[in-house]
Amino acid sequence: MQKLQINATTHIYPIYIQAGIRHSLSDYIAKDYDKILVITDENVATLYLADIRCSLHHEQVYTITLPPGEHVKQLQTFYDIHTKALQFGLTRQSLIIALGGGVIGDLAGFVAATYMRGIDYIQMPTTILAHDSSVGGKVAINHEYGKNLIGQFYSPQAVIYDMETLQTLPLKEVRSGYAELLKEALIAEPTLYNSILSIKINNIVVEQLKMHVRNGIMIKANLVEKDEKEANERKYLNFGHTLGHALETTLGYGTLAHGEAVAIGILFAMFVSEKKLSAQLPTKDMYRWLLDNDYPIHLQELSSTSLVKQMKLDKKVVSNHVQMVLLQAIGEPILQKMDEAELEGLLEQFFKKINNV
Ligand SMILES: O=C(O)C(=O)C[C@@H](O)[C@H](O)[C@H](O)COP(=O)(O)O
């Protein structure tokens, strides 16, 4: 068992990481709750919901099972969950458990943050990607204008991560999760970056996967502790997301998995870092690795003007300027305000380049 602790400014909470921990859940829930609501999706429910219900050892466990996919992270579902929670009779002494990937974690966390002005919740990530989204208290739903535009910072009581659940993931999910790991590696840890680039996604050794995820969590935890509300260095965790989120919204949620969009965003941020900062980066190796691992990086023609318009709804925008996270070197991120026309030009060059290589 590995136990980490997040010392965030607003709340200190544990992260338990252990294969099979789902079978002894009640040992890790620190308080008595009158009711427990587990929010999950259909894929995860089929595999793990029975185990969870059984190991909670609680008489009043309710469940809400949603269809899988980013499209549920929206206002109507959020409202419907509130309605069900009221019908189940959840009170301020109740607990919500977010059992699933990033979509479930963000949505269930935001319900917890707002139900009766906020009740306790626990993040139980079941994907690689959610090693990132379950830590740090960012909870949100999407608006049709963009990703995560309605949300809050609201820390969980605990993160309980059963690494066994990572072994049932489809390859698309593994790819998606590894993009967030690459992000953490590139902003903070060259050795993690080299280790990731040495693997093949369809042939990962479990111990290696666990090591990558643990490293990713530690990098994330460190930045969250320094800057919980994202005033400064937490923004580095948004590396690759400026274009990534714009692509997800422009192409329609679910066309690309979140991490697949972030992977393209990372490549773009590296391309811009080379152009603007003359940074010496292994962008070609990264591009090769993404291709070798079947990341969908060749996109249909997209209008740079509309992508930049979309990027202007990014939360890092200052004084109407898109602010990108760039790299001076691996492990040395900086924030860079971008001129709109220059950004459009760079996007055009970037898409030409990746589509012609
Ligand atoms: O925790 C953070 O900070 C991040 O930026 C992590 C991102 O990987 C994550 O996808 C996050 O939800 C995106 O944040 P947003 O603030 O740009 O919506």
Automatic annotation (TrEMBL):
Keywords: Amino-acid biosynthesis, Aromatic amino acid biosynthesis, Cobalt, Cytoplasm, Lyase, Metal-binding, NAD, Nucleotide-binding, Zinc. GO terms for molecular function: 3-dehydroquinate synthase activity. Residues 177-317 form the 3-dehydroquinate synthase C-terminal domain. Residues 64-175 form the 3-dehydroquinate synthase N-terminal domain. Binds 1 divalent metal cation per subunit. Can use either Co(2+) or Zn(2+). Pathway: Metabolic intermediate biosynthesis; chorismate biosynthesis; chorismate from D-erythrose 4-phosphate and phosphoenolpyruvate: step 2/7. The keyword Nucleotide-binding applies. Its cofactor is Co(2+); Zn(2+); NAD(+). NAD(+) binds at residues 102-106, 126-127, 138, 147, 165-168. The keyword Lyase applies. It is found in: Cytoplasm. InterPro entries: Dehydroquinate_synthase (IPR050071), DHQ_synth_AroB (IPR016037), DHQ_synth_fam (IPR030963), DHQS/DOIS_N (IPR030960), DHQS_C (IPR056179). It catalyses: 7-phospho-2-dehydro-3-deoxy-D-arabino-heptonate = 3-dehydroquinate + phosphate. It comes from the Bacteria. Zn(2+) binds at residues 180, 241, 258. Transmembrane segments: none annotated. Its EC number is 4.2.3.4. NCBIfam families: aroB. Catalyzes the conversion of 3-deoxy-D-arabino-heptulosonate 7-phosphate (DAHP) to dehydroquinate (DHQ). HAMAP family: DHQ_synthase. Belongs to the sugar phosphate cyclases superfamily. Dehydroquinate synthase family. This is 3-dehydroquinate synthase. The gene is aroB.
